[in-house]
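[Meeting: bench + compute handoff]

Bench side (C.D.) handed over the final construct sequence. Compute side (W.E.) agreed to return the predicted structure before the next meeting so the bench team could plan truncations. Sequence as handed over:
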Amino acid sequence: TIPFTLLLSIVAELGSDTSHSAIIARSYDIPAILGIRDLLLKVGQGDAVLDAYEGLLIINPSDDIRASFIKKYNDHLTLLSVEKTYINLDPITLDGKQINLFLNIESNKDDALKQSDYVSGIGLFRSEFLYMKNTHFPTLDEQISAYSVVSKMMKDKKVTIRTLDIGGDKSLTYYALPKEQNPFLGKRALRLCLDELPIFETQLKALLIANTERNIEVMFPMVGSVEDIHKAMAVVNRVKASLDDEGIAYAKNTRFGVMIEIPSIALMSEEVVKLVDFASIGTNDLTQYLMAVDRMDASLSEYYQTYSPALLRLIKLVSDVFNNHNKPLSICGEIGGDILAVPILIGMGIKNFSMSASQIARVKKVIRNNSLTTCTLLAKQALSMSTQQEVIDLVKKHIIF
């Protein structure tokens, strides 16, 4: 295994910008280009230059191309240096609107936790990585220990832990997932947990016991219906009753929420908001399901439209409902750290964003250099547009990066 600190870049035949390998690479600020068909046939021994901004990989570049890439790299370092001056600053718009930034992390040993002083908490703890890096299902004690470390480290800051989310592009070496034609539409995440109750109950028990700092929130992924919420909370209540019977102390007031990443549950926001304490929009899967495109297939990337007016309108619907009910709503998908998307989302009423550590400084820079008034006007225009390109052009024209 190569330490992330020694990797200069990643190039692969499989995957896409929103596959989990790409997300992890971004979290470590490692340039990556995925989904290059027949890569291994085209690349032999020799030098190569990579531009992850443009999606370019050039084998055996000429001296002129090499020189141009060196200049690009130096310009990139200069930009990073400017962005880093914002890391200690509060994410407040020019006209005084406070925005809250949170971290996405993979484990209690995640290097991203070093950046915790610069954010309001953990917006997404991907608990599945405790399972994926293991040789067995983590025991109750192992999970309590892992969750407790982060909870105590964050003290009075919120820690949102997503329950086990495997399936799709995430698997376990010691558990055979069902063979499915469409695994992203199959038995994964909450669906799998509801079918494997001992696994689900152990994790819920660990989360409740570990919440000694009273800062852990629990979030269910892949919720498709109100019935899913009822089923999940019924399991929570059974676990609480079991802990009561055993006389085991736990945080009775633990808050529970859902990920909104299936269009059906987004459209049911008025009902959902009454059943949960909070919600987080997982834009990676929400975009995939809304646009009916496999986000793992790089050849379909033009159809995976991150800035689609349809996606923005759906997010606005959810945002309005949760704001009207005064319940917390955050964005934890990749656009939560996307400087093109953040201004529009702020203008649509989103106040909480969760992202990789490498994105914090640049997002703070964009927030501090623009006003809520500008973002609100921008969002209004973006929501009335017809194409993704119109939205992109609008943001680039009016937002100061």
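W.E. noted at the follow-up: The chain has a mean pLDDT of 92. C.D. will use this when planning the next construct.
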